Structures are given as C-alpha cells and as structure tokens.
Amino acid sequence: MDDVLLSVIMSRKVVRTSKFRHVFGQAVKADQCYDDIRISQMTWDSNFCSVNPKFVAMIVDASGGGAFIVLPLSKTGRIDMSLPTVCGHTGPVLDIEFCPHNDNIIASCSEDCSVMIWEIPDGGLISPLKDPVVKLDGHSKRVGILSWHPTAHNVLMSAGCDNVVILWNVVHGEAVVRIDSMHTDLIYSACWNRNGSQILTSCKDKKLRVIDPRKGSVICEKDKPHEGSRPVRAVFVSDGKILTTGFSRMSERQVALWDPNNFSEPLTLQELDTSSGVLLPFFDPDTGVVYLCGKGDSSIRYFEVTDEAPYVHYLSMYSSKESQKGMGYMPKRGLEVNKCEIARFYKLHERKCEPIVMTVPRKSDLFQEDLYPDTIGPEPSVEADDWFAGKNGEPILISLKDGFVATTKNKEFKVIKSLMATTSSSSSNRQSDSVVREQRESSDVQALQNEVKELREMVEQLTKRVSDLESN
C-alpha cells in the first residue's frame, strides 16, 4: 500500500500542473472563413496578415504594384474579386500592421522602399484606396519589417534590406531616429519589449542585439544564438527574457530561451523537427504561452514559458491538412471571453483565410479570472514627442470581465508637418538636433520676412494705383 501511494506521489511530481495543458485548437466552420482571396505569392517571411477587433487585412496578388485588402471581421464567406483594395504602392507589399491605439489605422511597407500609413473607414472600403494619409520615405532598398510602438502614440519602427532601422514620428511624417551603422547584413526580425524602452533584432550576420532605440546603441548582443545559417526570429517574453527560433548546424529547427543579463548560455535549447520553414513566434504575456507557426507548416505548436526548468514547456499542437502561407494574431481585447478563448489566429491558405480558435475547456459559463488577467488596452500611455524626448510609459491595462467595449472614440488622425530633425547612429550624421532646428527655423524666418516684404510692396503699388484712378 505504501509503495502504491509513493508511486502516485512521484507520478504527480513528474506531470507538471498547468491550466494550459489542455488548450484546444479548432478551425471555425467553412461559412465563417474568408474565401476566394488570392493571397500574395511573395516568398518574404512576414505574417502577410494583420487583425484587430474591427478588421482583418491580408496582402494579395496585384498586377502593376502592391496591394492588400481590409475586410470588416463580419464580412465572411466568398469575397468578390472586384472588392476594392489598398493599392498605393508601386511594388509588392511585404508587411502590414494595424496600429494598436487606433483600429482604423494600418501601416504597410513595400519593395518600392516606402512605408505608408492608411486610414480605413469604419465599414471597410467602398472604393480603391490609393492615397495614404502619410508616406514615409527614408529607406534606400525594399522595406520588409514594420512594428508599432506598444505604448507610445504614433511611433512606428521599420527595417529594410538596406540594413537600416528607422523610428518614425508618424504624425509629423518624420524619421526621428535612424540606426544605420549597426547591422552588417539583412535584418530578419525586429520587435519592441513590453513598454517599448528596448528593441530586439535578429540579423543575417548571426547576431542577436538588444538596442536602446532612442540612442541607437547596443545594450547587449549574442553571437550565433543558433548555429545554423537559416533565419532566426526573436521576441521578448516575460521578465525581459528572449525567446528565439532558428536552426541547428544540421538544419533542425530549434527554440531557445535566453537571459540578456547572461547571454553566454541559453536557459534552454530544444530541437523540434527537420522542416525548413521559418518559425514565427507569437507570445501572449497574459498567459505566458508562446505559439510557433511555421511558414509552409500545417501545424501550430504552443509552449508555456515559466520560471522553472526547463523554462519552455511543450503544451500541445494544432494540426490541419493545409499549409499556412501567413498568420494573423488577434489582440486579446478581440477575443470571446465567455467561450474561454485565449488566442485566435487567422491562417492564410492559397485562396482563403481561416480563423483558428484556441480555447481552454471549462464547464462553468462564469468569467474565468485566472485565464484573463488585466490586459493591454488600446489607450497609449505616452505621446510620440514625449517618448522621443526620453519618457517611457507602461501599458495601460483593461479588464475583459464584461468583454472589451471601446470607452473612447478613436483619436482623430492628423498629420502635422514639423521641424523635427533626424538623429542617426552613424558618425557621419551626428549634427545635433538643436543646430539643425535653429538652421531650419532661421531659414523659415528669412522666408517669412521676404514674403512680408513682397506683400508690403504689393500693397504700396495697389494703393498708388487706387489713388491714381481716383485723381483721374
């Protein structure tokens, strides 16, 4: 009897307890998919899809340029071929991302070297959208990565094949910070930490870098996080740790967890399989679950990241028959909490987009507080100018107890042309902001003085002419 009891106790210790061990992934019914969409055939390793509680956007094939479609979430079923697209780019679109602070604003980047910001009307497009709200020019080669700042309003990061990272103040249409002498090869991924005080990049030069975005300087870096030569992806996870996906020397796919305070050895490194597709990581800070979606795979693996060894615990895998060309990830505030939905993906096939719902089975219909801690809401905590001046803002959290309801109307998006100067991390462009600003202001003052002088002369001429006419 004692032996049986001991074995039961031991077995309980072996099986790790977790409320996410039984996360269940399921595709929605056929009539809730978005059908007959010609998804882009580009081989670029981006998500090709972005989604928020209002819209789903997908990069599509387009003749004579680049385009993407934006659909209201409710517009499911077969999509008409004549549906209007966002088609202002002259080259194929490589990445799109909705603004986290305004569901009607979306950014796109393209092979035409430009970044464009678009405003989508509430009901979706009724005619082709060709003119962006603002066009951001600053890259010399195609732009393949976009990421909005998580807490600062209207701050956008872009990375291009010119090995340059630019931080934009979107409202002013200006490149404020340009990191152009750090990466010596193609940038594979770039993302923010939770409050946007750091940037994490992975690069073809086999280095992982944690960067101070405003100074454009390296805080710490890791050489060869994965031995293989294929692309590495990296994201910040809980407590400032870093999760990377990459390949071994034998081309086996790997996932690793790192502590930036001690980059010498990984906290854990696990080999997964021998597939060739790049693993795109999506991390949920509320649950500590990371989802790995491989380009060209037909499955989504999910792991729980914890403080106890081996740190990255395999949970389960969602499998289907068809491979994925891209993947959109719904923000937490767009989920159905009454159905215990903890994640929703929008999987791109050749000709359709299929939502996949991840749920934790529970018998009770009551709100599950342990599954839904307060999560990041749409309200920014700091304005762009203040953030560039050095102010950080923690995410403003909201409760999902009664489902997410927007309490404030989206802020009106206005572009303001300013005299903001660009700072650069390269030694050749270290002219101070104040000097540039003074030069611009003095030239503007000079132009205004000349204009006033011309107007005065014009008034004098008109006055003389009137007096001459009166005397006649």
Automatic annotation (TrEMBL):
One Pfam family in the UniProt entry: WD40
UniProt repeat feature WD, residue ranges: 86-128, 136-178
GO BP: any one term: cell migration
Keyword terms, alphabetized: Coiled coil, Repeat, WD repeat
Database matches in Gene3D superfamilies: YVTN repeat-like/Quinoprotein amine dehydrogenase (2.130.10.10)
Location of the DUF1899 domain: 13-77
Biased composition (Low complexity): 424-434
Region (Disordered), start-end ranges: 422-449
PROSITE patterns: WD_REPEATS_1, WD_REPEATS_2, WD_REPEATS_REGION
Molecular functions per Gene Ontology: actin filament binding
UniProt family annotation: Belongs to the WD repeat coronin family.
Protein name: Coronin
Organism for this UniProt entry: Sinocyclocheilus anshuiensis
